[in-house]
Amino acid sequence: MAKRVVPEINAGSMADIAFLLLIFFLVTTTMDKDTAYLRKIPKKVESEITPPPVEEKNIYKIVINSKQVIQARDSIIKPEDISTLNSRIKHFYTINRGKKADRELNYPYYAYGTKELYSTNLQNQQNRLDALENQEQTDGNTEKLIEQTLAAIEKWQEKLDMMNLYTEFSGKKEMPEIAFEAHVRLESFVDTDYSAYVAVQSEVQRAVTELRDEEAESLFGTTWTTMNRYIIQNELEDTPELRQYKKHTELIETLYPLRLIEVKPKR
């Protein structure tokens, strides 16, 4: 009786199939990741001058302990109530906005810039620059003073441009600016859960973003988020609309700056 021939399986294409499956899983698989707002980290500034201590009214201190309980100034916030942090941050920013008298003493004060103030400061710096450049003898110290004066001229010119823009769209002659020292201070411990830390960061960012959106909507008829997204998507272009949006977002960020200081975790 003839032997039965067992047919062989052609495995020549198995490698191709395995490769296609690998590509499929790489494309379709999603990985969990922490979600939070993107922020620009400020550069470290070296200075030989020790700055004066910041007044308590200009600090909104948030501490997250190892049990993820949050202390926001004198209030205790449970992890499930973290969304209440949003309104607290807004309160910190806005409680004294528009007030020159009867201000809440435990919160940042506002300064009110005018076109005349910025123009005067700009002219003073330009006069100082002229005097420095006209000196018969100059040294390294003079060059340093000229550099500082040029930086001051640039700063006051930016302020004046923003003041003109603010007046154009708001009709107001004074531009409110929160105290330069005002900031949110975030402290944690080495065993603080990272997700809780990111959640607090996001609540702070969300509060400031909502304030910016409201102000931008009031002034320009569109939100800061919309303009900022457009800038990011078209950053390689140079169009009138892009330049306009950059000026508008810079003004909004001046009115509602995000100064978040993150302290090294405690043990």
UniProtKB/TrEMBL annotation:
<keyword id="KW-0812">Transmembrane</keyword>
<keyword id="KW-0813">Transport</keyword>
<keyword id="KW-1133">Transmembrane helix</keyword>
<dbReference type="Pfam" id="PF02472">
    <property type="entry name" value="ExbD"/>
</dbReference>
<dbReference type="GO" id="GO:0015031">
    <property type="term" value="P:protein transport"/>
</dbReference>
<comment type="similarity">
    <text>Belongs to the ExbD/TolR family.</text>
</comment>
<keyword id="KW-0653">Protein transport</keyword>
<dbReference type="InterPro" id="IPR003400">
    <property type="entry name" value="ExbD"/>
</dbReference>
<dbReference type="GO" id="GO:0005886">
    <property type="term" value="C:plasma membrane"/>
</dbReference>
<keyword id="KW-0472">Membrane</keyword>
<keyword id="KW-1003">Cell membrane</keyword>
<protein>
    <recommendedName>
        <fullName>Biopolymer transporter ExbD</fullName>
    </recommendedName>
</protein>
<dbReference type="GO" id="GO:0022857">
    <property type="term" value="F:transmembrane transporter activity"/>
</dbReference>
